[in-house]
Amino acid sequence: MKKFKMTSYFGLLLFVLFSCTNEDTYDENFSNENEKSNETTIANRLMSRTALPRYSNDRLIVRFAPGVADSIKADLRDIHGVTNFKLCEHCTDDTIELWMFGNGINIEPKKSAIEQGSGGGVEAIVDVDYEFTFGIDLNNPDLGTANDYNYHSYIKSSNDGVTIAVLDTGIAPTIGGDDNAVFTAPFLYNADGDGNPSILSGWDFVNHDHNTFDDNNGRHGTVVSSIITSILNDSPSAIPHQIMPLKVCDQYGKASYFDFLCATNFGLEHADILQMSLGWYDDGFGDFLNTIISSLINEHPEVIIVTSAGNQQNNNDLLAHYPSGYTHENIIAVAAANKYANEAFTFGNSNIANFSNYGLESVDVFSRGENIPFLGYDMSGTSFAAPVVAGVIARYKYEHPGFSTGELLFQVINSGSVCPTSFDTAKKVKYNKVILP
User: Could you list the residue ranges forming a coiled coil in this record (predicted)?
Assistant: First the structure.
């Protein structure tokens, strides 16, 4: 939870690709813009290439001002040489478009021309930004099978309590089989009342269908979701809730920023809490504070967004990480404490996990993110610390339905345990607290 900083609608939002994997693969139409800039910092040069954005050469995301007529939108696409475009799937907001251009254009002057209204549109178009790819580490062992995709019987008959949207690699509901089932009762969001027959629960923004199967070999999104459900089911009084799986990462963990943006927009419209265990770093090229996603978050202050801080041992105050680095009051950024953080008799020896990012201004709290048990394996990463906090927030939200976002986050942070003296004093977070399940 940060001090709120108003973001402004300037120009256009460039389309971003990001990845939840540490694979060093590049798409044909993407290039590393760090190689174009003479201002790359030492910190950027030391950062893994897969953790930094890789920009599209032929795509931009634009956001129109509310109420702009379709005819004007079409005229502006023609003026700026758009060869094709896409809208966000299943969102009520039709102001956001992905613009695709032909080969041979220079994306930087194209962005500037649209921002400045060259040829028209300076008042009709209010946001623009770069498209890029980025990566975070996925070190999970292979889990589950390709047959864990059946999900219909796991959809609740009706929704109650708290809805948590998980933006990740999807969900594998039958993982563990009959003997070691992770999910033993219906827990998925029921979309029947949303008025869209195409959507049964969540949505797959990668493959564009209703089955959000987690085809990542490490089942990253499934592990994240299981942490949330476990906390809520194991509370002294079980907390009614449902998980809305929004698949934004493919089987390799790669995702497009446009898909991520659309899923965020969808989640903001339907859920109480958004869980995001993914992210990218500021390379000094993109203006990441002034983006469409920042504007969307600003427009939905009632929805709490829980983010992972990243796994590069990075000081996020010096090299910003997003979305955890956005300054909105409804975002909470979570670093990872080590395996001793949850046990009363070892808590006094706990510390920041050796891989975790941190930041006295940009990261809010710790939660255990090391050696998280799952089907006989131990999972580690800030990805698995963040859903602990999401689960605790969901519990507080259900128990205190009248709390505002600020009141809710204050209570959750206040409930945390002060970091013991064993914590590394050079790697602090804002509130010096460990959130326990």
Answer: none
Catalytic residue among 80, 90, 220, 328: 220
Domain 152-434 sits in CATH at: 3.40.50.200
Between β-strands 273-276 and 162-168, what pairing exists: parallel, antiparallel or unpaired?
parallel
Q: List Cα–Cα distances, 97 to 76, 93, 296, 418, in angstroms.
A: 12, 10, 14, 45
pLDDT tens digits along 194-247: 989 999 999 999 999 999 999 998 999 999 999 999 999 999 999 999 999 999
Q: Which of 56, 277, 356, 383 is catalytic?
A: 383
Query: Does 383 qualify as catalytic in the annotation?
Result: yes
130-154 burial, b for 16+ CB within 10 Å, e for fewer?
bbbbbbbbbebeebbeeebbebeeb
The CATH classification of domain 17-133, taken from the options 3.40.720, 2.30.30, 1.25.40, 3.30.70: 3.30.70
Q: Is residue 322 classed as helix, strand or coil in its secondary structure? A: strand
Catalytic residue among 127, 137, 148, 168: 168
Quick check: 150 and 144 in contact, CB under 8 A?
no
Q: CA dist 271 to 187, 394, 397, Å?
A: 14, 11, 12
Distance of alpha carbon 123 from alpha carbon 61, whole angstroms: 16
- The model scores a pTM over 0.85: yes
Tell how far CA 246 is from the center of its chain.
Answer: 10
* Distant-in-sequence contacts of 177-180, Cβ < 8 A, 24+ apart: 180/375
Query: Which residue ranges make up each domain of the chain?
Result: 17-133, 152-434
> Is-catalytic flag, 220?
yes
